[in-house]
Automatic annotation (TrEMBL):
Gene3D superfamilies: Electron Transport, Fmn-binding Protein, Chain A. Keywords: Oxidoreductase. One of its GO terms (molecular function) is oxidoreductase activity. SUPFAM superfamilies: FMN-binding split barrel. InterPro entries: Flavin_Rdtase-like_dom, NADH-dep_flavin_reductase, Split_barrel_FMN-bd. It comes from Streptomyces kaempferi. Its EC number is 1.-.-.-. This is Flavin reductase family protein. It holds the Pfam family Flavin_Reduct.
Length: 178
């Protein structure tokens, strides 16, 4: 493991991928499962590379590895759903992580407005139309236009990813604004 406090070298050059992963691991992210396709072609993948891009128009982006089984499913269906996971869905997050992922039929789900799979127990979801694709090194950056959304009425805490591990929020304190 590369120590985070390691000095930045004076000579510029390619950054080691493991070092980048270690340093970026200090940024806490939410955990999502991206779903797409329909019927036997439905698939999902755990992703923490998600961000909101724009409110007008409503745009978000996700990144999928070029070898992801989900990438061709999204490209063929023309859309995807971002499912925000709750703390109790950690097993779902692990089930959809890695090369051999769970099948959609193995988790409670329902169809979205455009018949894409939505994880029924998710904290919230965004259904997106695939708006653009960009090369992102070993990943494809997918820009999605949000076409529908939902958040069940219950209050649950989100599942987060920090330093290579799934975590729970450990503190209910709200920090004062500055």
């Amino acid at each position: 493991m590369i120590p985070v406090s390691q000095a930045i070298p004076e000579q510029l050059g390619p950054v080691d991928g493991r070092a980048l992963r270690t340093v970026c691991g200090h940024f806490a992210t939410g955990v999502t499962v991206i779903t797409s396709g329909s019927g036997e072609n439905a698939a999902g993948a755990t992703v923490n590379s998600f961000t909101s891009v724009s409110l007008e128009p409503a745009l978000v982006l996700i990144c999928l590895h070029h070898n992801s089984r989900l990438l061709p499913v999204v490209q063929e269906s023309g859309g995807f759903v971002v499912n925000f996971l709750t703390q109790r869905q950690e097993p779902v997050a692990w089930a959809f992580a890695g090369r051999r992922t769970a099948r959609i039929e193995e988790v409670p789900h329902h169809g979205s407005v455009h018949d894409l799979p939505v994880l029924s127990e998710a904290l919230a979801h965004l259904e997106c139309r695939l708006a653009a694709e960009y090369d992102g090194g070993d990943h494809t950056i997918l820009l999605g236009e949000v076409v529908s959304l939902g958040a069940p009425a219950g209050e649950e805490d989100p599942l987060i990813f920090f330093q290579g591990a799934m975590r729970e929020l450990g503190d209910d304190r709200v920090l004062p604004g500055r």
